[in-house]
Specification:
10 helices; alpha/beta; Pantoate--beta-alanine Ligase, Chain: A,domain 2; three-stranded antiparallel sheet; binds adenosine monophosphate; 2 domains; Rossmann fold; about 280 residues
Amino acid sequence: MEIIRSVHRMQEAAARFRAAGERIAFVPTMGCLHEGHLSLMRWARRHADRLVVSIFVNPTQFGPKEDYRRYPRPFREDRRLCQGAGVDVLFHPSVRAMYRADHSVWVVEEALSQGLCGAHRPGHFRGVTTVVTKLLHAVQPDLAVFGQKDAQQAAIMRRMVLDLNMPVRIVVRPIVREPDGLAMSSRNRYLAPEERVQAVCLRRALETAERMVKGQGIRQTRRLRAAMRRVISRYPLARLEYIELVDAESLKPVKTVKSPVLAALAVRIGATRLIDNTVLKSGA
Ligand code: AMP
């Protein structure tokens, strides 16, 4: 496995692969890798000749009061996991390698970024669309693989490559969970033992909505949201940030579950902010 730290050298490697007629799959991450990331890598490995993974904790997608500085960066362990997953190139640039000191160009998506996490993390998706654009220019992949864990991000990525005519296919893979249902996340390691126990509340709330739609045929999102809210309120360490039920494609709020609806929520457990989601489909 080759480790590359400069954009220029990454572009040279990509050009070599492409000249040899090889298809490149790309998995962008912020490191602190877990089974969720590895599931994306395994899929990518099977669907391309070359697998490039990036590890870059992107400062521009964190708010001033967020966890950029303390975000975990266990690079040795991450490198070992990448090696085991058959990664060809681990792209691990520094902040200075990615952003010139006078950087002033941004990529902004103006519709899908407004609600859900976008409403609570101003500037977050501007940071994501900008860094992913820069990473795609460095890696020049045929496929870029994202997780449904960050459903809003995935929808924005699909829209971005369409609207900007980027020659890359966006692939979105399912959420990988712990045995008790908690969605795997690098941030789970912030949780103290009792917080970890109560962190299942996100999945429990989503399961409640799934049962109501599937088992009882309830379609009104108002009722689903109220029931989810009640589940969260049973967990004393949980502070709800939002529960939204939106059209899975446009991310616009909907009143009833007809076409697929994304049920998404963000909850703070102590100081840790967690997100999760599910797609609800009417039985019809
Ligand atoms: P991150 O390192 O958190 O930026 O995540 C990198 C990629 O891994 C993103 O596309 C995430 O959606 C995806 N990812 C993170 N957690 C999971 C999970 N539990 N299951 C599937 N994909 C995930």
